């Protein structure tokens, strides 16, 4: 055995990744961890440079080259296995050499690939402690990612709830205040519909708020059915709703939708066996009637058209005609 007065067991214990060479450069001993990587018969008696390749420093092709680099850091590959090591070679008294190898920065990959454990490293090797730190860091980072995703999910849920009417599941006034200016900013033509329920107060007064809530939920369902998926339906007050219809500025088409809504809402809504009878009055306006359109102005005009519908006998739909298109004394144009 090359080297100091240590038997093979002691050398393997202290340096589980050592390689002992004789004067001819043939392998005479190998540490147990390195032997595990060989995954086959130990190459004892085989030339070191047939089993390993020294990548750096360059020019090591024979034993004398290796001996000339004694004490120099080596970068060594295990031929045919893909494992790379850092190493140091020192001469022994019998003319051979003793190399001690380590995984370097590929430690984690090697441990996972070869299923190495604490017992595969020297007791003084800091590799195991480093592995523990890496595992702890990974656990902490995983937990932080989980918490971050949880917080993002909670934030998204809170934002969604803040924009949703809890009774009907429709958008609420806050959502309208966000969406209407955004729609105007996109420069897309759109229609706006303000809806108020007729006779809703009588339902509440005669059958109670539970009946009123049921009516509002059924109205919400009807509005969703009668509009497109791209439209936004919002409950903006007790029995008031606003519908934004992006890309739809044709008065005839908007009138048809409004009349379908009115017809649908005139159908009795059942509450515990009692029919609740309501209707709807609607005020409409179109973004293309403004230069430029303004959110508050459009809402105000749709509201004015809504009350014109109520004055006209309820269950009506009226378009508002902005002053730029008005003739004297003609504020409202009936649909």
SSE layout:
Elements: H1 8-14, E1 18-21, E2 27-30, H2 32-38, H3 48-51, E3 52-56, H4 63-68, E4 74-78, E5 84-91, E6 97-102, H5 107-114, H6 127-162, H7 173-185, E7 190-198, H8 200-207, H9 209-226, E8 232-235, E9 240-246, H10 251-265, E10 269-271, E11 274-276, E12 279-286, H11 295-311, E13 317-320, E14 332-334
Parallel strand pairs: 12-13
Antiparallel strand pairs: 1-2, 1-6, 3-4, 4-5, 5-6, 7-9, 7-12, 8-9, 10-11, 13-14
Helix pairs in contact: 8-9, 9-10
How would you characterize this protein structure?
The structure is a single chain. α8 packs antiparallel against α9 and α9 runs antiparallel to α10. Helix content is 41%, strand content 22%. β5 and β6 form a beta hairpin. The strands form three sheets. A six-stranded antiparallel sheet has the order 2-1-6-5-4-3, sandwiched between helices. Strands 8-9-7-12-13-14 form a six-stranded mixed sheet, with helices on both faces. A two-stranded antiparallel sheet has the order 10-11. With 335 residues, the protein is α+β, with helices and mostly antiparallel strands. The protein is rod-shaped and about 115 Å long.
